[in-house]
Write a structure and sequence with these properties.
1044 residues, alpha+beta, eight-stranded mixed beta sheet, seven-stranded mixed beta sheet
Length: 1044
Amino acid sequence: MFPPGPRGPGAPGFPGAPQQGGAGNPQGGPPGQQFQPPSMNNPPGSTWAPRPQGPPMGGGFSSGQGPPPPMAPASGGGPGAGMGFSGPPGPPVGAMQRMSVNTGQHGSPKTSQPHPFQGAPNVRPGGPPMGSGFPGANPPFGSRASPASGFAPPPGGGGFPGSGPPLTGGPGSAGPFARPRPQGPPSGGRFPGSAPFPGARPQGPPSGPVGSMPRPMVAGRPMMSGPPSAPGPTNTFAGHMGPRHPGPPGPPGQPGFNPPQTHPPRPQFGAGMERASSPSSKIDPNQIPRPSLEVPSEPTIFQTRVKGQHQVPPQACAKAIVKDVGNASPKYMRLSLNNVPATSELVNQVTVPLVVFVQPLALPSPEEEPIQVVDFGEEGPIRCNRCRAYINPFMKFNDGGRTFQCSLCGVKNETPADYFCYLGPDGRRRDADERAELSKGTVEFVAPPSFCVRPPMPQTHFFLIDVSYQAVESGALLSTCNTIKQTLDSIQGGDRALAGIATFDGAIHFYSLKSPDASPQMLVVSDVSEAFAPVQNSLLVPVREFKDGLVGILELIVQMFASQKNAECCAGVAIEAAIEVLKSTGGKLHCILSSRPSKGARSLPQRDSTAIGAEKAEKEKQTTLIPQDNSYRSLATRAADYQVAVDLFILSQSYVDIATLGTLSSVTGGSVYRYSPFRPQYDEEQFFNDLRWNLTRPQGLEAVMRLRCSEGLEVESYLGACYLRTASDVDLPAIDCDKSVMIKLRHDDKLQEGSEACVQCALLYTTTSGQRRIRVNTVAVSVTGNISQIYRGADLESYLNYIARKMSISLPGNTLHGTKEGITVGCVNVLHAYRKYCATPMTSTGQLILPDALKLLPLYTLALLKTKALRPDVKPDERAAFLSLLFSLPCSSVLPLLYGRLIDLNSLRERKEGGVPQALAMSAEKLQEGHMYLLENGNEMIVKVESHVEPNALQELFGFDRVNVKAPEPQLLRMDNPYNKSVQNLINEMRKERSSYMRMAVALRSQPNETKFLNMLVEDRSSAGMSYVEYLCHVHRCIQGKMG
């Protein structure tokens, strides 16, 4: 196997250029804008090395730099102007993407229902209200004989030739491309394979005339052969399926209509998949919106403010070097709307909430300036007397510098005498550029003694190890002890760092060390009906001084329990006892668990965890994702009061109820790691790297965070791995560079257009070296009443992260089908609102119009629907662990997780330069026989071996020259040949970019890993859901239904 390395010694930067505004649209549409999609390249970092034989290695952080690829400015267009996806330059384009489609006739008026997140109107066909994954949400709106998607399927049973059953109903329903039925009102739309919506009725024929639609033009030429047609919008994307039929023209400025036709549906595949398109389809899949797959040679240089204005940041997963010139870096604070709506009514119209994601300890690029530390002495930093905001670049000094006006509440404050400075001709303090707190959006203050309730806590780590029969038999115990031994040197904190060890099976065993040379003593607690921890100072000892004794305890544990036969597990009461041990010091509890708590206090009864059929799983409520009781939440709350964070490492062979146990981590700021079924030969390396990165990454302890904002805005809610002790403060017993907190804002008054809204987040925490610091991030954003400007500043990653977190809290107790419908409704409402408020009056109803900043929203929404959280074939523990990951995921990890990176390994043979080669679209259309492919999404990595691969290539990577599907899963070996070295270097480069080890699996034909690989190709139809083209059709039908 390839060697391990430190998890995350490098941090991905921000690739891609900031969005460039273009000329305004004279017809009232949004100004043109060139969108820089996510880059698939990331900065290089330090090398991943084998598991250390001596002290473990440290990891530095590094990344490349440089300008983005050139971007062509967009110019404004008149009615019908749009954005083309490929081809040479055409007519002027605007900020909207338009896709012409074959259209049918609109249905009858529809009723309004609240939007699942914003309360925006939602429309559905007639029938009783229907449940969804979000409160108040309805399923997507069905296709009557309404206009179809901008990517028109052939006129048939609702799909592309051979693409599966119709999208819009069961027997008797008729989608927009189906043969007209004799009678009946319209029916509701649904996902393939699901039951019709409640209240759905058979669909009737269109009531209006039908005609022919003009052929779309790309760069002045038709996309398909045939006689010329009436002029229509240029730079549009359309598909024309089947022969054209003459008919009356459509309304002025709008294409005509094609009569519906019928194509036989293609049978739906089970675990396999179908291509996104077929040769008979006239749609060019290369023209639909996709993330940029090009690898920029240099990173973007991004300035947070230009000419005194906030700049829309590049994508969080892109490679960029951020220069802080007044606003905090988007790595630390990212807004869903970079132009703040002036009123709450505008927020409801846009249907994108105003959300702030704060990742205060995010890893910066090495090329960026380090955060400056400012010490104001015992008095502490300058603050507003009213709202207690910290001094920042947007405080306005008046009266010759003797007073300053708060940038948040507007109150005038006296400037302290020792902080006075005269003002320059521009009204700024003469020393503003010399003071970090007056020129930088991110600054760190040394906390004065008044901020310290007790002396800063030391770095304390307590390892709680499962020694039951399941742990010994699976090899988890041996792997755990070996891993902890090799990571003891990675513990931060110097001489102040403390560590302790305990084990449990049917009883709890504590290990005491009186002195470095003394033999350890084992203290056994056999009564597990209630938690009890021995009161001894020797349970927690200095790591450096007692390292040999701790290593001896770990070796003794392996010997003592080698012949373990006790299958009982008292994990629940053992965790409670360990929290009591850490009560006086605080710290981190690392629980390594191999079986479900089955004995003593806080034992968990077995719940049904067996997999069920896909159709049944879609409609069954996810009750196994709900904690069994509140006892673990109350325990987590008590741990947070003691400043104890709980990490769970699940090395199990069966169900352990992560939904209940995971509450311990989500409340205390810990993490959940799952390796199930645990196999040492495959999982031990990732376990080692995960634990070491957990110990070595940038992190803080006993933290408190508060967000303040301008008058007219207020905090509505916090969401993340944190503890809400009060409504205004967030307690974080532990905070690290891989976690973010979501804060949702709302209006409590109208904001003044043309002004700036200021948001400031302050984090008080203890560093790993034992100092109390206050990290302050401040961002000032323009306020606007122009809805087009709001959409222009929308941030795709923040909105997707918001949707994912809302899903993670709404899915437990709900159905998969209802939750999927709710997510699709959210996507439809955003795009419908854009069309309603931003499209020109002459826009054809047969065009799907996408805001430039959110043009990939349908693709990523589909990808979210295909994740482990919502697939019906996923077991409860796996689903619960994935939801736990989403609950604190930073914005930089959202897009890679949803839309991974697919690399052709055969291209490495001719590639001489280093780095990551250009990726392929996530579709099986890109796979070729005789090739091998590497797919990664920041969380896992799979090598796909296609058929007819050259024997030499197999020999160079795996050590065999032909595939044996009946053999155990092969491993990628480390061998001395150029091809193997190139692949190993690529893997290490990806791991450094993602700050994740990503255990590798190998997918052979007809093996379980192949299904897993194919389900990750989100653009294709699979057992996980529709293809990308089909989903675009579905979304557009829903939009047309709302417009009806």
